Amino acid sequence: MALKLAILISGRGSNMQAIHRAIQDKKLDAEIVSVISDQAGAPGVAYARSQSLPVRVLERGSGESREDYDRRLIAEVAAVSPQIVALAGFMRLLSPHFIQRFANRIVNIHPSLLPSFPGLHAQRQALEAGVRVSGCTVHFVDEGCDTGPILDQRAVPVNPDDTEETLSARILEQEHRLYSACLQLIALGKVRVEGRKVLLL
Fold this sequence. Notes:
Blueprint: E1 3-9, H1 14-24, E2 30-37, H2 43-50, E3 55-57, H3 66-79, E4 84-87, H4 96-101, E5 106-110, H5 122-129, E6 133-140, E7 150-157, H6 164-187, E8 191-194, E9 197-200
Parallel strand pairs: 1-2, 1-4, 2-3, 4-5
Antiparallel strand pairs: 5-6, 6-7, 8-9
Helix pairs in contact: 1-6
């Protein structure tokens, strides 16, 4: 039985595209039951439509609270009954209500080796800190900022001449491989979350 995925995006959705390619290449036993974007003009929306994936655009209304928006988002996600909600460049903070509704079922990928450099501009943070190794992390989402239980990580060397752009590009290559590999582990039933830890079965 294919793993049912709802994928949330805000921009180009390159990780969503990588997940879709992995499904097409039979490397990931999953089905994308919905691509949901909070931006109508997101390039990822155009890609999803070009691939005949089910797409919903759910923009935040003027003056709408985060909680009210999340109630609408919860309804959209719940309507397709996904097993996993995959964040793929979704730039909106999720409310505790959303996270509790889909507890231990929301997965995110972050461009650093967490717990180092959480939040925005992780690659810039790594360069400013002068580290020699950065990378990416797939983790389950909790109510903190990139603090949820870690599923897996990939290291990426930081070169002396790296800019934020070059480092980001190399990390992104690993993101595309890692995310699908982690989702396949979930699809195979090899992942269990217990408290703050992820157990690989």
